Amino acid sequence: MSKSISKSLGDKSEFPKIPDEFLERYAPLVDDVDEFVGSLRTPLAKAFRVNPLRAEVEATIEKLERHGAKLKRCEWYPDAFVCEGIDPNSTMENFLGLIYVQELTSMLPPLVAREELTSAGLVLDACAAPGSKTTQIAALMRNEGALVANEPNFGRTRSLKHNLARCGVLNTTITNFDLLQFPKDVEFDVVFVDAPCSSDGTVRKSPNILRTWRKERSLKYMNLQKQLIRKGFELLRPGGALVYSTCSLSPIENEVVVDFLLRNFDANIEWTPVPHFQLTPALTEFEGVTFRPEVMRAARIWPHHNDTNGFFVTKIRKGL
Prior knowledge:
Blueprint: H1 3-8, H2 20-26, H3 33-40, E1 46-50, H4 57-66, E2 70-73, E3 80-84, H5 92-95, E4 99-101, H6 108-112, H7 114-117, E5 122-125, H8 132-140, E6 146-150, H9 157-166, E7 172-175, E8 188-194, H10 217-234, E9 236-246, H11 255-264, E10 267-270, E11 280-281, E12 285-286, E13 289-290, E14 299-301, H12 303-306, E15 311-318
Parallel strand pairs: 5-6, 5-8, 6-7, 8-9
Antiparallel strand pairs: 1-3, 1-4, 2-3, 9-15, 10-15, 11-14, 12-13, 14-15
Helix pairs in contact: 10-11
């Protein structure tokens, strides 16, 4: 291990040891190893967004500040706030659906498709529970059009249904398909595939991920992710947009999966900047494998760049 990496680890005994293998995999990919490791060791602040289907932003913020909340508005998403001083989960505003407590990176997939959502007639959120992105998508659609919230795990549809009702979502129906078995007789304007993954971008929220981290886990998820991104793409109408995302840092679960789609389908990645939020172009090669050049239009989110979790997101357009 390099001296720089070793120095970054510090001596915070309460934090799980960062595996050497973890650092050997990701250190060469980041611009600043010390900043990267330091961010992993910093607990993630609570964040939420005001729900425009239920509330007006300024009035809601005024109420929360009276409760003792110290809020920082996100310049890149005026409805989103970082919160200290109180737990937003415990507020009446959350109970009533005026706000939705959600990690900042989880808000990105709907935002990169915001333009499409304002005019979309039919949208699919393929892995919907517990409803964080689904309720945000419905809000960006202004409760218009039709949104299908698909959750393959029947037990999780209860929380999905509760959150849709709490947030005043009216344009959404819930389905309970394994996505790979989703009916083929429907074509969507926008499909969101927030794929199951190794979740190693969420260390700031769940440090214990480091205790069991193994790079081989990415291979297990990659095969499923390839099937899911393919199915999501097949469900698009010509010209429609697929948003693929994971909370993994692994190129095996991100660039490799997107490269697979590009090599097998008439697909085009669109670089979708989020003003005032730092996105890093995806990799063009990893461990000796070279990806299609267009893969770099996908976006990586490193935790030290925006004080968030790690994430990956891309918008892919289907050929006409």
